[in-house]
Amino acid sequence: MVRLRDLGFVIGSSPTGSHNAITDVAGICVGHQTVLDDKPTAVRTGVTVVNTRPVGERSDLCFGGYFSFNGNGEMTGAHWLEESGLLSGPIGLTNTHQVGLVRDELVAAEVERDPDASWCLPVVAETYDGFLNDIDAFSLTAADVRAALVDADTCPGGVVQEGNVGSGTGMVCHQFKGGIGTSSRRVELESDTYTVGVLVQANYGSRELLRLDGRPVGRLIDAAVTPLPTDPSVADAGSIIVVIATDAPLLADQCKRLARRATVGLARVGGTGGNGSGDIFLAFSTGNRVPLHATKPTSVSTLPAGAMTPLFNAAAEAVEESIWNALCAAETMTGHQGRVVHAIPHDRLAALR
User: Fold this and answer.
1) CB neighbour list of residue 229: distance below 8 Å, 6 or more residues apart
2) What is the pLDDT of residue 54?
3) Which of 52, 104, 243, 290 gives a 20 to 30 Å CA spacing to 93?
4) Does the pTM of the predicted model rise above 0.70?
5) Which of 239, 247, 285, 322 is catalytic?
6) Are 161 and 23 in contact (CB under 8 A)?
């Protein structure tokens, strides 16, 4: 799995966590289930799960918030997240037509885990993989969702697979092959050192707008170098989902502020929030514990507003690098109706240093 830094590029100046992944935030785990088939039709899809708390601590809620940069997409549970500012995991990612299946299985898993839970409104978000995947075949199954949950619970060493994996399997980014990407940053404040981790499902954008640390990569590696997908409308038919996690003690309004900063990282790469793109960003904090069944006031802590700027910078950098990690890790794929989406050529990219 090739990542951006393997090609000699470094985004920003803040240090990364040990894995340069969302899992550098303690307790966060990521699981994937990839579904590939060619008979009777081309299936290129999957599901990804992000656990907000480790096993044994799932009854603790997180403060969270979301921001819709362009709302041509779906994120279930968003209304309650907006109302309460509270998030319970896990978070699911999948393709546009199977959000309901993933949501239902996350509810069923939660009821099994906590029979006293009277209701569950999980967060499940999507991007459209119908260019490479026969999305109307509804190939994802309940067993696939359960497999992703198991994978998340056994997340090995914090390593997160990227590119053509899980919910990112059939995704296209800036008309190159896209998918799952992740990155992290360490932030030193007077009070403590905190981690900001990001995971993206990158499936948006046109080639000509693609930038790497200011370099006009999309114009330098154009269609004459790497062919575009056969249908140019794919550039405006996708979306990007961004999940930001931090162990800094933030309240719900601060999480929403952090979620908005994903827009900065997206813009640096060349995302402008096209009309057909669902660009939805979620941020949550593990720095406070809110018991699910609490009946008495709960003590929480919060960073002062003036300490948020370093977190904003970290989120922007990590989003930018996460998108590039998705692009670098992805591999050329042939899918539905013989359509081909090419990976970004590593040699041509490295030559731009």
Assistant:
1) 131, 172, 175, 339, 340, 341
2) 87
3) 290
4) yes
5) 239
6) no
Pairing of strands 124-127, 91-95: parallel
- CA 42, 210, 345 angle in degrees (round to 5)? 60
pLDDT, averaged across the chain: 95
Angstrom distance (rounded) from CA 227 to CA 338? 15
Question: Is the pLDDT assigned to residue 347 strictly greater than 90?
Answer: yes
pLDDT of 82 reads: 97
Q: Which amino acid appears at position 189 of this protein?
A: L
Active site residue 139: no
Which SS3 state, helix, strand or coil, does residue 180 take? strand
Is 239 considered catalytic here? yes
d(CA 220, CA 348): 9
Q: Which of 167, 184, 277, 322 is catalytic?
A: 277
Given 24, 129, 247, 279, which residue is catalytic? 279
Check if 6 is active-site: no
Task: Please report the domains of the chain, with CATH numbers, ordered by start residue.
Answer: 4-344 (3.60.70.12)
